[in-house]
């Protein structure tokens, strides 16, 4: 089976265009040879508990874990000698969150990628800016795909807004990609005179699209996919090799990345013209800025913390992240904080935030936490609901 690795791509580019940059960031420019040299000096973190992409259930060889960092470090780890598989953290769209191993692309996966590139206007010689972190599936696939297509990659991930805008002005990219929150942060802090934006990994609402267009972006594409299935649709139209069916309001998907299996991704519908519209998560999880969390699990965890008598979580709209949670808690009357005044209440809220962040990550921390006065009532329920 035909397969393509990042190291192979870089060797080809080093041979065909030895002095041309392939990556630009705040530290300067790197040619393909520079990136290969960095890869040779990289010792990526490995583990021996990876899961095969085909979910065969057998132990995987040593997979490489990607640490957070600039794209030059991420790509060097992927292209390092001896690396065959990368452990990409699944968000849990189509199964429980877990590490998925991704190796070289097969022929059918390459065909899907080429169709994606064609629809998005990704061409050799063009420049694409990436605002998505490279250790996430979105950022890694965008960066590796751009290099494979002969494009120049501009890394604006993990930069503050002034630095990101300065780099965008100096490089004048043809395209920019990121989660909606990344793109909106840039649009709200300065003009974005970029021909195309590629939004993915989270819901892109009509108002978000209009805001990006108003910032100067010529065209905004909505790319739908998951870590497990790969990219599936561009602006609602399935890619080559992707089969999507609607089953009782759920989207059943088969793609070159599912190894012949059909998996349930999200709630959605398919129009008479074949256009796919995603309407919500199939499992009740919430996406905040492209990061998934489970309000039910958060609620159960908070309910078990010392001094908490009752918990309610509400999913509310958020202008920046799309959706966040708002918590309402009652303190156990027997707990010292119950009669400790505002300072004690503030300490309880601070502790809840810290515990949730440590257990589930920053995206799961409620946007605000309100204290409900008095003892628990019959209306207090162990629930997480959407408003």
UniProtKB/TrEMBL annotation:
Query: Which InterPro entries does the protein's record reference?
Result: AMP-dep_synth/lig_dom, ANL_N_sf
> What's the name of the protein?
Acyl-CoA synthetase
Q: Where is this region: Disordered?
A: 367-387
- Please report the stretch or stretches of sequence annotated as the AMP-dependent synthetase/ligase domain: 90-234
**Species name:** Brachybacterium phenoliresistens
Q: Which SUPFAM superfamilies match?
A: Acetyl-CoA synthetase-like
